[in-house]
Backbone:
C-alpha cells in the first residue's frame, strides 16, 4: 500500500459470491493505477469482506488520517444515508480519521448519461 495520509475508499453493498466483486475490484485497480501515491481500497457491507471497519483499521495502521469514501451505489438508500455515516463516525472516534463522503453514482449527471448511453447502445432496433 502506498504511504500517504489520504486514501480513497470505494464502498459497496457486497455479496458472498466472489464473482460479484470482480467489477469493483477492477474499478479499484484502475483507480489505484491512476493514483499511484495514494492508497485506494475497497470495502463492503457485512457479510461480504473486507468490511468497512477492517479496511479503515488497516488504513489507520498505515498512517492514513483522511479518507474520501466513494459509495459505489446507484442511489442513496439507507446504507448510504444512515449506515455509512454511522460507520464513518465510529471510525473517526476509534482511529481519528477524517472522512469525506462523495455522492452516489446516481447523483451524477455524467454517470446517468453514460449509463443511459450504454443502455441505448445495447438496445436492439435502435435507429
Residues:
Amino acid at each position: 500500500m502506498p504511504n500517504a495520509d489520504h486514501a480513497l475508499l470505494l464502498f459497496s453493498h457486497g455479496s458472498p459470491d466472489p464473482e460479484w466483486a470482480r467489477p469493483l475490484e477492477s474499478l479499484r485497480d484502475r483507480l489505484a493505477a491512476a493514483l499511484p501515491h495514494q492508497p485506494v481500497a475497497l470495502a463492503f457491507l457485512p457479510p461480504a469482506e473486507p468490511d468497512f471497519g477492517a479496511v479503515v483499521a488497516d488504513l489507520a495502521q498505515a498512517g492514513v488520517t483522511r479518507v474520501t469514501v466513494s459509495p459505489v451505489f446507484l442511489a442513496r438508500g439507507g446504507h448510504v444515508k444512515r449506515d455509512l455515516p454511522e460507520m464513518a463516525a465510529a471510525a473517526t472516534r476509534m482511529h481519528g480519521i477524517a472522512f469525506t463522503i462523495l455522492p452516489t453514482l446516481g447523483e451524477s449527471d455524467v454517470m446517468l448519461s453514460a449509463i443511459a448511453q450504454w443502455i441505448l447502445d445495447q438496445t436492439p432496433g435502435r435507429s
